[in-house]
Each structure stands twice: as structure tokens, then as C-alpha cells.
Amino acid sequence: MKKTVILFGATGNIGAYTALDLIVNGYSVIAVGKRSFDNNFFVKNGCHTYISLDICKKTDFDKLPDKDVFAVVHLAGALPARDCGCDAQKFIDSIITGTLNVLDYSVKVGVNRIVFAHSQSDINYLFGTTKLVREDAISKFPLNDDHSVYAICKNTAVNLIEHYYHKYGLKRYILRLPNIYLFHPNKYYYVDGIRFYQPYRKLIDKAIKGELIEVWGDPSRVRDMIYVKDLTRIIIGALGSVVDGGMYNAGTGIGISLDMQIKGIIDVFTQDKRSDIVYKPECKNAPQYIFDISKTVQDLNYVPIYDYYAYLRDMKKEMELNRFKELWGEE
User: Which residues, other chains included, contact 2 with Cβ-Cβ below 8 Å and sequence gap of 6+?
Assistant: First the structure.
């Protein structure tokens, strides 16, 4: 008999990919999202059902099964990059209250484990070197930017999850996520309420058109770049783990230089004319970081399978297929 997993945040960027990969790996998936209608996307793609639910409302959880749920994967909650970062109450309601409601539901129906999407916002102070960032790094973050309340809420949610593990024995797998690379038709994100073109999508579009590409700052600076389909493998690893869980880094453990990032995009996405590159060392440097994934490998049986070029080639296929068109629409 298939184990049932309830996936909160199923209509989001990561959630939709996760739902399909859970199905492939033999789980019965109940997809949950705030959207009132999913255009029948999830059932058509093999999910047991789709349930419209607001995790901020405790009474909405009455829509969910009252038994035989093995795990919850909790990817729901407001994001600064999607919600403008302007409404502190939105973060408090969706991340803190929402997580508390998910936890209470889990204990009530006897869920075995929870997988939770944490954020790198609380360890950004460690970025800037090639020293591996450990999963047990001390949490510290700026108190004056558009991610401050978001980071506070995420850390509070993590503390609540730890409390429920120690009090009720609910196994917990807290995944610290950097930027997750994937195809989504929305190319934009927000900083302090202002909309910007996502840098890597802008570079891809320039490569497709054969336009000049500028490389800002030090081109040797590196970044740990994890593709969404490696992240879903971490989530599946957490569902099958025999340990009680803890904090885990979601990454590859490998740094990809800015120079390689640009050249890879040009190699994979060029159509007719190959983009020229001009270096601008006087411009601002990109952040650099590499995650230590040794604990993720050990506890969750995780080995990344998408190197940088494999990720780009697969993302190109996703752009062409647009598998999530019924859910997300066009660009």
C-alpha cells in the first residue's frame, strides 16, 4: 500500500515539481494549495486529489484526512521575492501560524514526519568565501532589510518544529534552501517591493537572442547551484530516512564560478548568434557560497545527479515542454 504524503504549497515553484517526483517515487500525494482551482492539473498528473486550503485557518484543516497520513511536506508560506516583502503580518500568519496549524494537524492524525523548507536568510553573513557553510551554523541575520521579518518567522517556525519533535516525537527534516534553480514562466522577483528581472533568466534570454552579456565583478567567485530536481531527491530522501532528522543543507557542495555560469548559459541556450562577453570588474561582486552537504548525504542518502550543464540542459527541456502550463500559464 502506498504511503500518503500531504504536500502543502503544491502550486508553488518547488511544490509542483515535488508533487510529480513524489508520484514517480511511489507515494500517494494529496496536493494542497491556497489557490481555489488548479485546473485539474494534479489529478491529471497522478495525485490522489487537490485540496484548496488556507494554512492560516485552523478550520480549513478539517478538509484533510483524519488518519493514514505518513508525512507532510511543508513548502507553503509567503516569500519576500514573491510577496514584495512589505507586509509583516502576511509572513507571521502564513509562516508562524501556518506552521503551527500544520504541526497540530500532524500530531492529531499521527503523522510520522514533517519535511520543512527553511531559508538561507539566517546564514547569509557567512557568504563571501569558499569555506563550506555547515548546517549547524549560528543563525544571524540583518534586522533592517526586506528579508528580516521573513527570517524571524522562518526561525520561529523551525523552533516550533523542534518543540513538536521533542514533545510529541514528530520526526523533522528541516531543509535550508539557497536559491533553487528551475523553470517557471514568471521571470520576475521583488526586493523591497520593487520588481526586478531574475538575473539568471535575463542572461538566458540574452543568450537566446545572441545579445552582449556583461560579467560583473570578479568572474572567479563561486556559487552552490542546486537544481530543483536534486532538491526533490533530498525531500524524497527525507521521507525514506531512518534517522529522526534535524537541519540539512540543500546544495551540491560544489562552487560554480560566475565565468562558468555565463559560458554554460551561452553554450546551452544559443540559437543562431553566439553572445559576446564583456568583463566589468569594476562592478559589484556577486555573492559566493558553498554548502557543506555531508550530513545530507549521510542521513538522506543524497548524491546530486545534476551538474551545472545537466541542470541547464534539463531546464531548457522544461522551458520547451512547459509541463506546468495548465497550472502556471504562459510567460
Answer: 26, 27, 28
Residue 77, phi-psi category: left (phi > 0), alpha (psi -120 to 50), beta (remainder): left
Strand segments, DSSP code E, in the chain are 4-8, 28-33, 49-52, 71-74, 113-119, 171-177, 180-181, 188-191, 194-197, 213-216, 222-224, 226-227, 245-249, 255-257, 277-280
- pLDDT digits 0-9 by tens, 246-295: 999 999 999 999 999 999 999 999 999 999 999 999 999 988 999 999 99
- The span from the CA of 86 to the CA of 191, in Å, is 9
Residues 40-65, mean pLDDT to the nearest whole number = 97
**Beta 222-224 vs 255-257: how paired, if at all?**
antiparallel
Please report where in the chains the cell 484533510 appears, as a residue: 64
**Model-level pTM greater than 0.85?**
yes
CATH of domain 4-185+225-253+287-305: 3.40.50.720
Give the separation between CA 248 and CA 135, rounded to whole angstroms.
6
Three cell numbers written together for 154: 522562518
**Which are the contacts of 243, defined by CB distance < 8 A and separation ≥ 6?**
299
Q: How many degrees, rounded to 5, is the angle at CA 295 between CA 137 and CA 245? A: 90
* Domain regions of the chain by residue span: 4-185+225-253+287-305
DSSP state of 136: T
Terminal C-alpha separation, the chain: 39
Mean pLDDT (the chain, rounded): 95
C-alpha–C-alpha distance, residues 68 and 59, integer Å: 20
